[in-house]
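So, could you explain the following?
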Amino acid sequence: MKRLFLLLLTSLPLLASQYATLKDGTKIILKDDGTWEKVEIIPENAVDATKVSPLAEKIIKALQGKWSSKDGKIAYCFQGNRVTFTKDGKSKTESFKIENIEPDTLRFHLNAGETTKMGFFSVGGFTRYLKLSKDHATLLDRSETFPVTLHKVQ
C-alpha cells in the first residue's frame, strides 16, 4: 500500500504537466506520441438531465436533506445538485453527481466538485463511496477506514 501511494505521489507531477489550455479556453492533454486529446470541462453548477439515469435521479431524491453519523464527525447536506460534506468540523460545498451505481445494493460513487475528466482520471473535487439502504433510512459511508453509518436528521 505504501509503495502504491509513493508511486502515485511521484507520478502526479508528471501527469499534471501534460495538460495545456489553448487560447480559446479549450483544455487538452498532451500525449507522449505528440498527439493531443480534448478534455471535457464540467461547469461547477451544471446539471445535464439527459445524462442522469432514472436510478440516479431516484437516489438523488432520496438523499435530499441532512445526514449525520451518531458522533456528528461526518455529515452530508444535500440540496438540489449541491452537497455540503463535513468531516471533523471542516466543510466543503460542491456540485455533485452519482456514478457507478450498483442497482441491487444501491452502492454508488458520489463525485463532488470535479472540474476536468478524461476517462477514469478526474481533476478537482472528491469522491465518496456510499451505500443507501433499501428503505432509504441509512447511508453507509464506505470511504472511511471503518465504514460509518449515517442517519437522516432533516
